[in-house]
Amino acid sequence: MAAGITSTLWKLETAEETSVSVMAHGLSRGTLYFIHTKTREKFAVNYKALGLSAGIGPPLVVPNPSQAKTSDPSWSIGNVGSYTGKKYFNRYAFPCVGAIFGANAGVGILGSILKMELTTGGVELFAFGWPLNTFAYVKVAGLGRSGLPAAGLGAQACYFWLKT
Questions:
Q1: Considering the entire predicted model, what is its pTM?
Q2: Most buried one in 3, 23, 96, 138, CB count within 10 A?
Q3: Alpha-carbon torsion 54, 56, 61, 67, what sign?
Q4: What value, to the nearest 5°, has the Cα angle with vertex 115 and ends 139 and 28?
Q5: pLDDT tens, residue by residue, 34-54
Q6: What is the rounded CA–CA span in Å between residue 82 and residue 78?
Q7: Furthest C-alpha separation in the chain
Q8: Residues with Cβ < 8 Å from 86, sequence gap 6 or more?
Q9: How confident is the model at residue 85 (pLDDT cuts 50, 70, 90)?
Q10: By C-alpha distance, which of 41, 40, 66 is closest to 143?
Q11: How far apart are CA 110 and CA 131, in angstroms?
């Protein structure tokens, strides 16, 4: 890893999200479930996000909903990364602001016609404390279901808080 960046002992266990995109705007909410790889301690972080995206898909005015459940495959690409000298990543680091940067693609209703249970997939980078005081990040990949065929890149401003 680059200087000043360390890998923590926290890892994403699973995630869930519900989102909708309309005319290059996206609104999403979800929960990230973390587990400590040594102590097995767990905590969950809720989030709400609003952002912009660019991609190809249905006509601009048609809403495209998507959903991923905790039972759907999702995983972190490595452990949570942390920046040296910043706030430590654990349950006490929340609430905070942040961002999600992602790429996704899905076949939507076409996959449902073909009897596919999961019709979309994506990768995302969750940045905690972004933009002024980023203290940690986690890279996430996962599968879910979407309403319409689409592919795109996006960025969302987020608010994260501890799930109770």
A1: 0.91
A2: 138
A3: negative
A4: 35
A5: 999 999 999 999 999 999 988
A6: 12
A7: 51
A8: 129, 133, 134, 135, 136
A9: confident
A10: 66
A11: 38
